[in-house]
Each structure stands twice: as C-alpha cells, then as structure tokens.
Write a structure and sequence with these properties.
five-stranded antiparallel beta sheet, 25% strand, globular
C-alpha cells in the first residue's frame, strides 16, 4: 500500500482497510455459471437468482441446448423479479455444465469476428455462448446471422 495513490490520499491504515473492501471486477454471467456448477456438484438441481435481461439471454441459450429450464417470477410484496433455474438430471448435462470454460472476464474481453467463429464451427466446437449486438446467441445462431461478438464461455 505504501507508495500507492491511496496512501497519499488517506492515512496508511485507512488505505489498507479501503483496499480490502474495494470490489474487484464482477461478471454476472461467470457468477451465474459458477453458481450452476456449484449446485450440480452438491447434487441439487434448483437454483434461484436475481433477474437480469443478460442472465435471461444466457439461460435462453442453455435452454435451447436442452441443459436446463427456467421461469421468471415475482414474489408477493417484493418489487424485484427472480429467475428459478431447473437443471436437467442427466450425467452428460452435469459433466458439460460443471466443466464450462470461461473466455471473457472483466479484465480481459475476448471478441471474435464471424470469420473466426466459422473456423471454430468447422472444428466441431459448438458450445460457445456469444454476446452479440442482437443479444446472447450460441455459435450456430451467430454464424447464421453473420454476427461476431464477445465469447462468454464454452460448455
């Protein structure tokens, strides 16, 4: 901490405390996938998370691949919506979801143009989930619509 801008602005003890509470990068999609992986590893199949349109887009792609189903609901007396996720009880689904591979992170975004996506598709790598200008799509839909984008993860 000594020599950093925090120690010049605050006393050294205050700077040390502030560093411990400052949030690092947060990625809601990697967080969602990690939560799904964790519930599968402990043998459960249901998960409830806060709603966001971005999360719903990812869940639509995973539902289209027949990994899970989800529904949106709102509890009485609450204003925020929730997503209830039900993961399929299948050994192959569990294996693929627990061994997902993240590409983009808050500090390093990974973008691919449609030409590179076509190359990956020809190599039978069909598990990419991509955030495009038209929403979250899997690699097949992105190539059909000629869209590149940020590669979020691979299942």
């Amino acid at each position: 901490v000594s020599g950093s801008w925090l120690s010049r602005v605050f006393c050294p003890e205050c700077a040390r405390r502030l560093i411990n509470i400052m949030p690092t990068g947060y990625d809601p999609i990697l967080s969602l996938m990690t939560e799904i992986k964790n519930i599968l590893l402990v043998g459960k199949t249901k998960l409830i998370v806060d709603y966001s349109g971005y999360r719903e887009g990812v869940l639509k792609v995973l539902q289209g691949r027949d990994f899970l189903s989800y529904k949106i609901y709102k509890e009485e007396g609450r204003k925020n919506k929730k997503l209830q996720i039900d993961v399929k009880e299948d050994g192959e689904v569990t294996r693929r979801l627990t061994s997902f591979r993240a590409f983009s992170s808050p500090g390093r975004r990974y973008y691919l143009p449609v030409s590179r996506l076509k190359a990956y598709l020809s190599k039978r790598r069909q598990g990419f989930v991509i955030s495009t200008s038209r929403g979250v799509l899997d690699i097949n839909e992105a190539v059909k619509k000629s869209l590149g984008g940020e590669v979020l993860f691979e299942v």
